[in-house]
Automatic annotation (TrEMBL), chains A, B:
GO molecular function: manganese ion binding; metalloaminopeptidase activity
One GO term of the biological process aspect: proteolysis
SMART domains: AMP_N (SM01011)
Cofactors, names only: Mn(2+)
The protein, known as: Xaa-Pro aminopeptidase
Amino acid sequence: MILKTSSSLIETLRDRRQRLANLIDFPAILWSGTTSPRNFPANVFPFRANSHFLYFTGLPLRNAAIRLSAGKLELFMDDPQPDSALWHGEMPDREEIAQIIGADVAKPMAELELWTEEAATIAVQDAATWTQQSQLLNRWVLPLKSPQDIDLELAKAIISLRLIHDDGALAELRKAAAVTVEAHKAGMAATTHAQIEAQVRAAMEQVIIANNMTTSYNSIVTVHGEVLHNEQYHHSLQPGDLILADVGAETETGWAGDVTRTWPVGGKFSSTQRDIYDIVLAAHDACIAKVSPGVEYQDLHLLACTVIAEGLVNLGILQGNPQDLVEINAHALFFPHGIGHLLGLDVHDMEDLGDLAGYEEGRTRSNHFGLSYLRLNRPLRPGMLVTIEPGFYQVPAILNHANVRSQYQDVVNWEHLSQFADVRGIRIEDDVLVTQESRDVLTAALPTQASQIEDLVCR
Amino acid sequence: MILKTSSSLIETLRDRRQRLANLIDFPAILWSGTTSPRNFPANVFPFRANSHFLYFTGLPLRNAAIRLSAGKLELFMDDPQPDSALWHGEMPDREEIAQIIGADVAKPMAELELWTEEAATIAVQDAATWTQQSQLLNRWVLPLKSPQDIDLELAKAIISLRLIHDDGALAELRKAAAVTVEAHKAGMAATTHAQIEAQVRAAMEQVIIANNMTTSYNSIVTVHGEVLHNEQYHHSLQPGDLILADVGAETETGWAGDVTRTWPVGGKFSSTQRDIYDIVLAAHDACIAKVSPGVEYQDLHLLACTVIAEGLVNLGILQGNPQDLVEINAHALFFPHGIGHLLGLDVHDMEDLGDLAGYEEGRTRSNHFGLSYLRLNRPLRPGMLVTIEPGFYQVPAILNHANVRSQYQDVVNWEHLSQFADVRGIRIEDDVLVTQESRDVLTAALPTQASQIEDLVCR
């Protein structure tokens, strides 16, 4: 973290505060959080500041809080302990930090208790901090509890701000996207020399670490792409395998990238792999081409379902009319998740607030299999950043399920499907910004065409 | 994690249980812990199982507990949810896990409450788990609270086991050491092409990730070696700088490596850097040469202090008799930490129990500056693994302190010291096993001589 005063950061933060002040007439206190212990208290996980706090301070401060009231910013944090310089180096003191973020006032943490009246907050994830929040505000502030009353009002106000990315946010999101793209290229280039998944992952994360960033979520780098959140990396790579890599970089101030590509270990897709890849890519391209203000995100999801169903009919894997197949959820046998989600300071942006951010007010999750995993259901607006990530998976737990087999007996050509056994999982994911006129794919520098992917692997 | 039944794992675990049963006559329940949330509940830090649990199960299971009683092993965990196969893949069920670890009985988690009577435990770090521990045992089990009564007895019994590494442990520790050595070599080789610290760190962690391991603590890779726990990586590398890298690998089942080397960015130590480096190396070598059963670890610390004081007198930085200088803590101006610590499943092994493991019964920490940071004060015994890590640092917070300046006015040749301004921090650390006769340096494959280090950087 290079700490220096920049007028653009100060202006960005002032503007965010002012817009918040236009929406709520009570003070808000946001905590940064503290480190979480790993195997013993002094051995902690890398610190990640709370995203709402980051949005209004731009700095990953530890053990700090801010009070936002009528556009004013008050910083509460303690100066470093005398001992701390030995272990952690000379750290900027409270006054210096206050200057960098443009705070109006800076006070020690102990004074925060004098300023809690009528204040709303949002729960931080670590127990030490939410305990402190609960004590100071004299009510339970729990990360798994839905916000109520003024906390709910605050959450809705912050959501309305964070949904629409300002220039300060976009500058960071573009940095995250650029490093994410480089990481994927490095992963592709490392594949032909790799023996196990972990070596491909290492080549990708090296790029992220070298750029002084972190991963925005635990990387998925696997030959078992059918496991959606696979976190195993020990499998050996076989020439006929596909690697599915879902890896994203996060900037020092917390802004996330999130990209998936799928490539052949041997550098060349088999004809069956290529057939399915092109269907997923067609869904990806069709959805992205439709991204523009006013479009319902759920309609993009349904479009992807239809394109995938159509493709599978053309390949002879599904039988029937694509629209009808989507009606009876046949596409979800192979595409059982949503088309994507919001992206910002969190990789599923603001998911700490449950579906409050993802779902337009008055809408709730469907219990329809397939739609139930859709994390975003809002009309698109300029400044929103979403992922578009269709996929095709052969999940044994789904396809071998007796009920599924009988329900879809006549819809799936099971015998023909067995010829596509070398396709366990394919996903193609990009980060797409809704603009005034249409869209801007932040991760467009990473090719998607099968032949381009092959070139990157063989380079 | 490759899960397969191995008779050697089963035997190792049985032996550990039997030795525990020889020490305590009440049951013990150990929890594995659960994931800690990062910025929202579904985005978690990489899971790290509790070390005491790992010692008796050998597997990083999530949300599991074991009950150890009279040499018997009972496993409590739930089978994966039906949904889980979609997101996390087909996981081995409770019965399969029980077979792999040689459990006598396997039961769902809900049955654990029937088996808590008179049982001792050790607090796990994550709040969700210590809350569960406290509820089930009907007493506060907190990671920051010293264990009492049977919990204390259990802690002491486990310490006596974990202090002396068995063959199963050593096999893992040697793996961690080997990968740690390779990571350091990669860091050295990457330096001449690197512009910032993060790029050197990336080269090192790539090796660890590629071996499907994790770092055993947050890496220190810095040109500001004088900051003991520096976790910043953004500084640019200048030709005259030294890089201090304190980086260790941890195996899949939790066993740690911990190594530090210091090398010149430009590939060649300056004469002042070389002078100080050789003093630190002399202290390192002298301590390691003394490691053998019966030796007091604190005496190794004092030996390092004396060798460093001697060296600094010879260089003209300190003035006086080395023994006298150590008496008045003059060495601690430049070497303000302890000579090392226990190493095992934790990088500071069993530090979750405070000083119970590090300090022989009846001994407590000194409040002497210098000795107060000594984490280990026991006579060495065969099977103990310790780090030896002397250093030299110019910490502005110490050396510019007015009291220090006046107290040590005649002891330090401040003017002469200023010629060594290009030495901000040097540390050399290896992992040393106490054997029956003497010692075995697990990380000996990584050179320590200045000229060898230069060769590795310039290779």
